[in-house]
Each structure stands twice: as structure tokens, then as C-alpha cells.
Amino acid sequence: MVLRRTESGWAVLAPAKLNLSLEVLGRRDDGYHEVETLNVPIRLYDELFLQTAAAPADSSRRFELRIESSGNADSVPSGEDNLVIRALETLARRAGCPQGAAITLRKRIPAMAGLGGGSSDAAAALSAANAAWGLSWSVDRLSPVAAEIGSDVPFFLHGGAAICRGRGERIEPVALPAGLPCVIVQPPTGMSTPDVYARLDANASPDSGSDSRRLARLLAAIRSGDWRNLASGLYNRLQSAAAEISPEVHRLAAAFGRLPFIAHQLTGSGAAHFGLCRHLRQANDFAATLSALNLGRVFVTTTGS
Ligand code: C5P
């Protein structure tokens, strides 16, 4: 996440993420699931602009959000349900801040894709407001607010690649080389995260254990460019549950499987599918092939740092 000052306020580049590995360790009493996931940011960004404003007399209009999008803006809520508004309301309450804010969100990350767009936007809003309101809270102090907004928000607040545990909010940063090319396809229909977890529960698979060796092998493979071990280390426990909900999961997996990606899988709870490539030219070639199949929106990008 990159925060910079502009003439009128603050601007943040909010990246998407890919789950290179996602294990579900069990169901918790609070309805969430215990997870262990390796998340990497990618260079596909939303942009958030925040300008402070005096608190309006009508407190329901304290935070004004305008969404600019050429893609699936209809599925991004612009009112109180938007995580950006929830993040700002929660931080303002915690910090006792009276100001309002006008926010413009330029969306490029597709919604309901498993790419973490909404969570990244919320983290971006927390960072921008932290600066704009002169709070100077540390990431550690902002993290519990982030976790209240959503399980993936602390990951984006920390920035960089990380192993995320608990319900996703316990962050262990990991140093990984950036610049691994990837192709992402978002099918026309998005996926609901609670629906995918519910399907996983309905299948009543026994609780799985954390395989720290598999994760260590995957990290080593990424660091050394060992494509074979990278291929065998990529993993997503949610993929088969998601495939039972939408036939598009199989369709995308089959289309990716016909191309010699290093490896490919669903990201998060879907619906987007991604494949890792050896170099950018290969990523562009594969993206052209997948585009011709009309499976959905196709993105070419690289992993970030
Ligand atoms: O935390 P967040 O609001 O993003 O989670 C959305 C939904 O996804 C939760 O209500 C829950 O159904 C599911 N979830 C889960 N376990 C997690 C993360 C999310 O069951 N670790």
C-alpha cells in the first residue's frame, strides 16, 4: 500500500492479493474458520483519494463516498455497507475524531473475486484517515480496528507478503521476491465468501492440521525460483467447495490446465482463478488465449512487494 500527499488530501494505491496457499484448520465457535494462508500483494490496484471536511450537521452524511469504475461497480456498495465507510466510522469513533471526509474510490479490482479488493480499500481508508486526521497511530495500533472491519484488512494494512493465521488477522510478514508474472480471470458471476465456507462445513471434512513443512517448501520454492516445487506447493482448501457452488470454477481450472502455467488455482474463496508464469511475455500470450475463450475479465500483472 502506497500513501502519498496530494494538493487536496491523501491518495493511496490499494493492491489486490493472491492466496498462494490457503488451509482451513477448523471451524471456530464464533462462526469464523481458523486459517493459515500465504498472501501476496499483486500490482493490480484500486486508488483511494481522501479529503478531510468539517463535520456536517447531518451526521449521516459525514463520509461521502464516490465510486468510479469501468467494471462491475454495481456489485460494490457505495453506502454504509462499503468497508471504506465502516473503516472510517470505526476509526473516528475509536480516536474521537470529529471530522468528516470526502472519498473517491477508483475501482479496478473486481469485487467478489477473492482478490481482497474491498479489504484493501478499507485498509487504504484507515491509512489515509490516520494521516489526514493527524493521528499518527502505528500499524499495531490500527490493526485491531482493521480486524473489526474484516479478516483480510490487517494483511493489507501491514503491506507485503505474509502468512495470515487466526481468522486471517494474525500477520507474519515474509520476505519474498516480487515480480512473478500472473494471469487472472474473473468470471461474470462473483462468489460469496460465507457461501463457500458454509459449503465446506456442509461437506463435513474432518479438521485439517497445519502442514508447516508444505508452507516452508512453498516459500523456499518461490525464493529460489524452483517452479516444480512451486507447482506442487500451491494449494487452496476452498477450491472444491467453491466448485460445488459454481460450474465456472471447473471451467476456469480446465482452461488454465490446458496451458503450461507453472501452477494455477482459485484465489481465496473465488471467483477469480490465477496462473503463475515464467515471464511476462508468456503471461501476455496465455492471457490472449484465455481472452479468446470469453471466460471473463482477464488481467495480467505481477506479484508485488
Ligand atoms: O471477515 P470477513 O467479514 O471478511 O468474513 C466474511 C465471512 O467469511 C464471514 O462472515 C464468514 O462467514 C467467512 N469467514 C470465515 N472464516 C474466516 C474468514 C471469513 O468463516 N477466517
Please provide a brief summary of the model:
This protein is of the alpha+beta class. The chain is built from ten helices and twelve strands.
Notes on the protein architecture:
It is built from 10 helices and 12 strands. The protein has helices spanning 83-95, 117-132, 139-149, 153-158, 193-202, 212-224, 227-233, 239-245, 247-257, 280-292; strands at 2-5, 10-27, 33-53, 63-69, 100-107, 162-165, 170-173, 181-186, 235-236, 263-266, 273-276, 297-302. Helix content is 35%, strand content 29%. Helix 6 (212-224) packs antiparallel against helix 7 and helix 8 (239-245) packs across helix 9. It is of the alpha+beta class. The model has no long low-confidence stretch (mean pLDDT 94). The strands form 2 sheets. Strands 1, 2, 3, 4, 5, 6, 7 and 9 form an 8-stranded mixed β-sheet that branches. Strands 10-11-8-12 form a 4-stranded antiparallel β-sheet. The chain starts with a strand and ends with a strand. Bound molecules: cytidine-5'-monophosphate (C5P). Cytidine-5'-monophosphate (C5P) binds next to strand 3 and helix 5.
